[in-house]
Amino acid sequence: MNTTQIKMLLVWAAGLFLVAACSGMATSNERPDTEAKSFWSYMQNKAYRSHWDLWPGKGEKYKGIEPHGLLLTTYLNGPAIDALKMKRGAMPDGSIIIKENYMPDGKLAAITTMYKVKGYNPDQGDWYWVKYDPKGKVLKEGKPAGCIGCHGAMRGNDFIMTGKLR
């Protein structure tokens, strides 16, 4: 083998190694499905607490209102934080908002989520909703009337109550 052939073989082997190493990794386009247990796994795998943005200007355990709790921490994935910062008027497909709901003593009571899925529920902003207990037990899922009813008052703000999208 000449030097050129050896270099080509090394490049090919390196590429094969990268494909094998990355085959189990999530891509940036990976999206969770609309099934609560797999959505919980997705949230945990993404380590949202350490890798996603907090709602701008709110920080951790900010003052909230019922039914979510008196203390809240809200996380946004990339598409959601970009839409909020750019005041796009609506969250794009793939946006995820995770709200941790705390008791007055600071104990986590529930985790509520909104996940924008194009075509999921067009009449209600295409939001998929899930409420979990702190250990991931599903309390509500899908199109809960309570979630939609309360957030529906903010239909002109894409069902978002925490801040303005315009």
UniProtKB/TrEMBL annotation:
It comes from the Bacteria. Residues 1-28 form the signal peptide. Transmembrane segments: none annotated. The keyword Signal applies. Residues 71-161 form the Cytochrome P460 domain. It holds the Pfam family Cytochrome_P460. Keywords: Signal. The keyword Cytoplasm does not apply. InterPro entries: Cytochrome_P460, Cytochrome_P460_sp. This is Cytochrome P460 domain-containing protein.
